[in-house]
Amino acid sequence: MRSKQELDAAIRRERRAALVVNARSRRGRRLFQEARARLVDAGFTLLGTFPTDRPGELDASLAAAAELAPDLLAVGGGDGTIGAAARLLAHRDIALGLLPLGTTNNFARTVGIPLDLDAAVATLAGGKVIDVDLGLADGMPFANHVGIGLSADVMARAPARLKRSPAGWHTR
User: Fold this and answer.
1) Global confidence as pTM
2) What DSSP state is assigned to residue 151?
C-alpha cells in the first residue's frame, strides 16, 4: 500500500478517479451530472461513473468503482453513503473523496469538507489525504457515528419525505 503522501501525489499527478453518487440522497439525483462535470473540469479522468437509485444497488456500485482501481473514489451522498464507502475502502489503496449531497452531512463537516459542491470538488483537487479512524460495533465497521436507543430508532423510522423536505432538516 502507498503512504498517504504517495497516494496524495498520485491523485494530484494522475487525477484517476471514479464517481459513485447515491441518487436517493437529498441532492444526489439533482447534482449527479453537475458533480461529474465539476470533477472533469477539475482535471480528473473518470474511469467510471455510477449513479445509484435502487435500494441495495449502492454496495455493488461502490465495489464496481473500486475494481477500476482509481486513486480517488469520489462518493456523493449522505452519511450512510459515505459510511458504506468507508467500510468498502478500509485497508485499500484508494482514497475516499467526499461530495456531501445528503441531509446532514455530519461526516463531511467533521473532516472539514465544504457543503458547497464546487468547494468540495476544489478540496478533492487540491486537498490532502488524511487518516480516518474506523470503529467496530458488533462486527460492523463505522466511520462516522454509531447510535443505539432512541436516536437510532428515530433515524430508522424517519419517513423519506421528511428527510427530503427543505423545512425538515437544517443543512448549513
Assistant:
1) 0.81
2) H
